[in-house]
């Protein structure tokens, strides 16, 4: 396998060396592509040093040298990648030695576009652990509940399977054929500063054929520390609701261009509508909610909690 590992780098001078080294130790890694995103710390200098240490490490920045977010950085990495396969790694996370074990077998099947696995959680600071437990508090092993492939992965991610599919798998645990991304014209939504990874994964699961790999053991570790943006957002707060609306609205706009199964299209629309209503207040919110419930009572089963006092 010739795998290009794409690492967006922002404010990660303390962690990026370990991330890069964890990828370089794997024989199937053909290149490590660092995309530095105008970091406020000394990350750019660390990246230059990593390039000098190993010829497989390549460094890029955006044409204007500005900050464009993780989605745009990953898109640039995809454009620059020359490997047959693409893998992603956050700069504060790292791969384990079994990272591509399942891929070596599963990609022998030409219909397989992508493989996903489980990842573990490592607390790099006590404050990071506290914020994680308060605002996220999902399982330390981020995985799915059972092996799945094809359309069941897409439906499972939307919560539409008879069995509960489980937690979201992450980009750190995903490997995909570059040709599949090109053929399907799949890229990250650069307008999303958060959740662009979840948005990408759901779209990928619908448009490509994904298979589960190692789902009972971690193949990578995500690092939780003081600067994790995602752990600082309190669930069902106005900021959380706004981020969720942007995420579901992105999926909704995408879904209107496709012929999705009716229940999948409805689910995406109702999630978008629920978080759209969350931005309203007082009488207008009450009227909007009553109208939405009258039109489709299933909106009350969305991820948004209409009873949250600050919504």
Automatic annotation (TrEMBL):
Q: Which UniProt keywords apply?
A: Glycosyltransferase, Transferase
Q: Does the keyword Transferase apply?
A: yes
According to the UniProt entry, its GO molecular function terms are: hexosyltransferase activity
Statement: the UniProt record of this protein carries the keyword Transferase: yes
A Pfam family this protein belongs to? Glycos_transf_2
Q: Which CDD domains does this one have? A: Glyco_tranf_GTA_type (cd00761)
* Domain Glycosyltransferase 2-like, residue spans: 4-119
Gene3D superfamilies hit by this protein:
Spore Coat Polysaccharide Biosynthesis Protein SpsA, Chain A (3.90.550.10)
For this entry, the protein name equals: Glycosyltransferase family 2 protein
Q: Which organism is it from?
A: Chryseobacterium pennae
């Amino acid at each position: 396998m010739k795998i290009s590992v794409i690492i967006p780098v922002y404010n990660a001078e303390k962690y990026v060396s370990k991330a890069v080294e964890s990828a370089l130790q794997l024989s199937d890694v053909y290149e490590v592509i660092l995309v530095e995103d105008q970091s406020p710390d000394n990350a750019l200098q660390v990246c230059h040093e990593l390039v000098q240490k190993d010829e497989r490490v390549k460094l890029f920045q955006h044409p204007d040298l500005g900050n464009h977010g993780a989605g745009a950085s990953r898109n640039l990495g995809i454009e620059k990648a020359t490997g047959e396969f693409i893998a992603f790694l956050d700069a504060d996370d790292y791969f384990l030695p079994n990272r591509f074990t399942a891929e070596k077998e599963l990609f022998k099947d030409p219909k397989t576009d992508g493989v996903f696995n489980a990842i573990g959680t490592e607390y790099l600071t006590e404050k990071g652990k506290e914020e994680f437990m308060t605002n996220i508090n999902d399982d330390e092993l981020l995985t799915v509940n059972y092996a799945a492939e094809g359309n069941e992965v897409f439906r499972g991610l939307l919560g539409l399977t008879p069995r509960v599919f489980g937690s979201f798998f992450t980009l750190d645990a995903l490997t995909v054929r570059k040709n599949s991304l090109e053929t399907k014209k799949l890229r990250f939504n650069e307008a999303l500063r958060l959740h662009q990874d979840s948005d990408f994964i759901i779209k990928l699961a619908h448009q490509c054929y994904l298979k589960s790999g190692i789902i009972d053991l971690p193949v990578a570790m995500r690092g939780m520390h003081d600067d994790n943006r995602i752990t600082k957002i309190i669930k069902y707060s106005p900021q959380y609701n706004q981020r969720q609306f942007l995420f579901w609205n992105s999926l909704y706009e995408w879904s209107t261009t496709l012929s999705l199964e009716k229940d999948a299209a409805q689910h995406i629309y109702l999630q978008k509508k629920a978080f759209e209503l969350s931005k309203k207040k007082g009488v207008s919110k009450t009227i909007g909610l009553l109208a939405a419930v009258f039109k489709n009572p299933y909106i009350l089963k969305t991820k948004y909690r209409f009873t949250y006092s600050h919504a």
